[in-house]
Amino acid sequence: VASGEVLGVTPPVSGTGLVSVDEARRRVLSACGRLPPVPVPLAQAFGLVLAEPVRAGQAVPPFSNSAMDGYAVRSGDVAGAPVGLRPVGTLMAGDDPGQIFVGQGEAVRIMTGAAMPPGADAVCMVERTRSGDGWVVIEEAVPAGTNVRPAGDDIAIGDVVFGEGERLSAAHVGVLASLGVESVVVRPRPRVGVLSTGDELVSVPGPLPAGKIRDSNRPCLLAQLHGDGFDAVDLGTAPDEPGALAAAVRRALGVCDAVLTSGGVSVGDRDAVRTVLEGLGGARTCWLRVAVKPGKPFAFSTLPPANVPVFGLPGNPVSAIVSYELFARPALRLMSGYRSLFRPCLAAVCEADLPRRPDGRLHLARVVLSTDRRGALWARPSGRQGSHQLSSLAGANALALLPDGEGALAGETVEVWLLGTEGLEARSSGSERSGSERH
Ligand code: AMP
Ligand code: MG
User: Fold this and answer.
1) Above pLDDT 90, what percent of the chain?
2) How far, in Å, CA of 420 to CA of 397, rounded?
3) 271 CA distance to ligand 2 centroid (A)?
4) Distance from the CA of 423 to the center of ligand 1, in angstroms?
5) pTM of the predicted model, to two decimals?
């Protein structure tokens, strides 16, 4: 099937028009762009992505200082240790060494972080000294530079400390603070609206009316967005009625950088999302049948006037999240300025069979990934694999890739996409289980 047939406004009619995950992703990512940069105070920068490099305007450490509590000495004086020296002062962290100079035969009591006094070129740790009234014995020789942290030892003036596209971790924030940086230029967190669709959905407490179900996709996607570092906007639910749905989407376009809908993209009688996106986005809208399970039906458009990407995720709860993982998350990371868009792909050994049947699609099995004592990765199914069975996604920390065919047998190696690190450290078999439970 030529990609034009699948990607155009007109959906493929027969059952064979599947498009690969890569092709669908390429289509989505090529339509999304990075958000314009904004300056933010350092205190609000954690988790955001730099939009320009940061250069050091000062050195870290800013001055040569002691790495130990001890005595600052002239290395030449103590080459023949043990040797007695005359203490001529004390330097605490924060003191200005000012007039203190260490001459021949002299030492200065110094604390960790205090500036090295001129004349001294090494520090002997206090544990290797003995002191009395007006004298100190240095018991071991300290070559020049011993226990001294030179100015610029971590960062020199003018160094490019961080590049564009780097996500600011706690350590990044610490480094920037040490440089006296007060604000940084980053990409803002995309504001992502979440709209559930379906006449069957109930989102208020109380007994369920006949035929209704609770809206789980919206809370789930809002939490997922939050966990991925995006700003989540609750857009509520819309009925399976194109007029009301179109109004809800139009309202969202004014306040969101991107919109996720769930439901209404299949071939059911009332699948209104597709209709609405095609109405609002015209030729920019594509409705895809992706060669993946779960997550086959998927609609995408960039809606005017601001070309806001709208991701029409499937309604089945696991399909919605998988489709988010495959298409929306990488696109939102691109908008956020990240260099890497995708989950890490690792190799893991199957603890149990992961069977499937050939159907022309890539299957993504929910698995629990764990490590053994030698650091090898193991994958076991986290539960039942129906696309409505969300409980097995709750325990999973990875998706195993099962290419078209019969699946994988226990002992075989599969590729996995790592979704998180929870549960990774404890392989739950044999004696290792009781060991880890005691902690
Ligand atoms: P649809 O794609 O609209 O045909 O929905 C597919 C399945 O997902 C149906 O069983 C829906 O009831 C279910 N579903 C759709 N939206 C939600 C939601 N927000 N929360 C839970 N289940 C949903
Ligand atoms: Mg529906």
Assistant:
1) 90
2) 5
3) 6
4) 29
5) 0.91
